Each structure stands twice: as C-alpha cells, then as structure tokens.
Amino acid sequence: MNATQQQIAWITQQVMQELAAQGSSRSETLDAPSAPLQVQVGISNRHIHLAREDMDILFGYGATLTRMKAVKQPGQFASEECVTLRGPKGEIKNVRVLGPLRPTTQVEISVADSFVLGVKAPVRMSGDLQDSPGIEIVGPKGSVKKASGTIVAWRHIHISPEDAERHALRDGMEVSIQAQGQRAGIMQHVVVRATQASVLELHVDVEEANAYGLRNGDLVNIITEQPPWLMFPLRRDCARWSS
Amino acid sequence: MNATQQQIAWITQQVMQELAAQGSSRSETLDAPSAPLQVQVGISNRHIHLAREDMDILFGYGATLTRMKAVKQPGQFASEECVTLRGPKGEIKNVRVLGPLRPTTQVEISVADSFVLGVKAPVRMSGDLQDSPGIEIVGPKGSVKKASGTIVAWRHIHISPEDAERHALRDGMEVSIQAQGQRAGIMQHVVVRATQASVLELHVDVEEANAYGLRNGDLVNIITEQPPWLMFPLRRDCARWSS
C-alpha cells in the first residue's frame, strides 16, 4: 500500500468506528429500501402508431386493427397489420402497427433504420414530434406522406404513480440502468414515465438491447443519476436532486 | 454495497478531494496525468477476414484482395471483395472482406445479424474462435462451409505499447468508456489491445455505436474499471488493481 491507500484505510477505519458507535441512530438516518429497484426489460422493434385518418387511407375507410398479441403495457397490442416505410434512401417493409389507434401518427425506428431510410430521426420521447422529419407510409389500400412524426424512441421506464411514489421516482426524472454481463454498461438518461395503468417496464430499442447484452424479460437494476461517489440508496430527497 | 459502505465511500471521497486540493502536497501523492485519455471511435460494420485457402475457393485459385480503402489500423484495409453469409435462418449479402489475408478465416457480425442468420455467435475477442459456430460463406467462384469462426467482436481499444505505458494501460486489461449526449452511458468491459504498430482507437460495432450515440471519429474518455466509489484519476498503481 502506498501513502494514499494508507490514508484511505485509516479514514475508513475511523468512519467505521464512528458508525459502529452510533448504534440505533443509523436506522433513523437511513430509511432506504434494502434492495435496489429492479425492472424488466421490454425490447421495441421498429413500429408505427396510426391516427384514424391515416388508418383509413392505408387500410381502407373504417378499417380496424386486428389484435395479434398483447404487449405488457395494459391496453396496448401488436396488430396483424403492417406497413412499408419509404424514405429518400430506401424502404423498410413489414413494419408492425401497434394498437390502439392514437390521435397522431408516430413512426419509431432505430438509428440504423434512419440510415437505411435516409431520414434524420431525432431521439425523442413518444409524442414529442415537433420538427421531427416526415416519411412516406405505404399500406395495402393507399399511401400517405407525413410531414413529421419519425423518431428514435428515447429509452424510458413505465411505472405506475404508486410504484413511483414508493421508490422515490417522479414522472419526467432521469435514472440510470446497470446492465451486467459481457456487454455490461451503465445506461444513462433513462426517463421515468409515471402514468396511470402502467406496468413497471424498461423500454429500449433493439440496438440498445444488443449493445447492452439485454434480452426481453431480463431484470436490471435502476440506479439514480447521482455522480457515482454520491450513490446512496434511493431516498426521497436524493431522488429530488437528480431532476 | 450496503448503506454503511456507501457512507464510507462518500466520506473517503470527500477527504480525498480535500487532500487533492491541498496544493503542492498533491504532486507528491498523486502523479496522475492532468486530463483523462481520449480515444477516437471507429465503428465496425459486419465483415470477414479470409484465410488463403478460403480466398482460393471463394474468389478463384491465387486471387488477391483489391484494396478499396485503408482503415485506421496500419496495414489493414477494406477490399473491393464481398461475400454472402448463409446461416440456417437467413442470409446477408455484401459482407465486405477486410485485408490482408489472415491465417484463419473469421466472420464478425452484430447480435442482430446473428438472429437474421440463425447463428449463435458469442461475443469474443478477435482470434478467440474456440467453440464458435460455423457458417456458409458464398463467393463469386465458390462457397465454403466453415465449422467455426463466427463471432460478435468484443469491444476493444487499439493502442501502441508506448501509449499504453504512458497512460498506465496494459494489454488485456479492461477499461470503461464514458459516452456523452442523449444516449450517454458508461461502456464497461472494453479490452485494451496493446500491440506494435497500433493506432489509438476504440472499436465498437454498429449497434454499440448507435446505442451509445457514437459516430465515427467521435472522441470519448477512457476511465478505469474501478468501482465507481474508487474512481481516482488514472495512476500507475491504480491501473494495476483493475487487472
């Protein structure tokens, strides 16, 4: 051990002794949950949400989506319907429509897809479509050129307001995720979306999943956006700092 | 780490910062470089390295690679030649051959590619091909079924032994990379490859680049693989702990 390490060892010893001497007072100052919050991974492939008027054009007036498979978030589903995306540089077929219909059509692609299509899609939260690029959408009954609505989804955690409250998380705050394994990494700027009827789930796209070695259903730990040396257990007042 | 250890870590960090701020005494105990080591990002798309015998089968006996573009590592180049990879589930065309020829044929694909092909390629360092799956390679003059050699490249940093020495890095050790921006993250388990005639460069694949928001030529900071609460500036003896 060199001088610096000896200093650390000595300081640590002093602190340990001080803490040990405090006895019961420790439980008063740290009311943290004992384990970090774990969240299940949900991987999103490219997909599209359609508004009624675009559904009419692409699949015929009054057409409805056919439920193929429920996804984890309540009420949402993958439909049988698919479209083709056509950009200035190329097209991508078999892009699945996710239901139910929404007020605004939104296309969610990967960064790699954006190069294939030739569309500079920004990394955005769902619904934040201002100044996002448009794209041509081709369906079996017609096609539509959208002026905007193409994004790369910003990674996020769905959580119910109750679960958020319990774990000192708030809608809109950012946390980090620790992925383990050969491609371990700390994924930063993961936005918390605390909304009614949400089920706890981390949404990442295919490239994020593959780069961090994640599979559907994997469990990962949420850590707060503190500097690493300030990484206390999750506490209400700590969480507030990180907004 | 439990709460007590985290408190110790935090207090230790505070004390260390105080020590570091004490002026001249710092240079005696901390001989760290003033700035973190930065490395340029090089993004690898899927590619193949060919052995002489496979080059003969795929492109004709005695065929040679045609240099198309030099890559950053001295002597290496992208060739005009491409092959098709054919797996049990699908095939990928236009996979570029990287030159020069090597003793052993090696296929480097992404995780997404491995699903397309139906080949369970492990994440491995170049040359570590034991028990890796095989694949069929199709060229203009013939095709060959390899029994092994298909991998997903383990992310790594090329560095000369001199640069490594200067920055307290050693061949085979792992470091982490801090990526900034909307998709900021700490990429862990990045292997240092300190070999002669290497140029400092971080090699990641397309999915890693897109997930961490990296572009070719971006500069990122190298940080050592210390636990976060021991993340001091790079020092020779600190670096040695992380092997």
Structure description:
The structure is a homodimer of 243-residue chains. By secondary structure, chain A is an alpha/beta fold. In chain A, 24% of the residues lie in helices and 35% in strands. Chain A is built from seven helices and 15 strands. In chain A, the strands form two sheets. In chain A, strands 2, 3, 4, 5, 6, 7, 8, 9 and 10 form a nine-stranded mixed β-sheet that branches. Chain A has a six-stranded mixed barrel with strand order 1-14-11-13-12-15. In chain A, a hairpin with a 4-residue loop joins strand 4 and strand 5. The C terminus of chain A is likely disordered. At the A-B interface, helix 1, strand 13 and helix 6 of A face helix 1, strand 13 and helix 6 of B. Strand 13 of chain A pairs antiparallel with strand 13 of chain B, so a sheet runs across the interface.
Q: What is the share of helical residues of chain A? A: 10-25%
| SSE pattern of chain A | HHEEHEEEEHEEEEEHEEEHEH
Terminus-to-terminus distance of chain A? 40 Å
- The count of strands of chain A amounts to 15
Can you tell me the overall shape of chain A? globular
Cα gyration radius of chain A (Å): 23 Å
Seen as an oligomer or otherwise, the chain set is: homodimer
Catalogue the unreliable spans of chain A.
Answer: 23-34, 226-243
| Biggest sheet layout of chain A | 9 strands, mixed
Provide the β-strand percentage band of chain A.
35-45%
Mean pLDDT of chain A: 85
Structural category of chain A: alpha/beta
Biggest interface and which pair forms it? A-B, 40 and 40 residues
Number of helices of chain A: 7
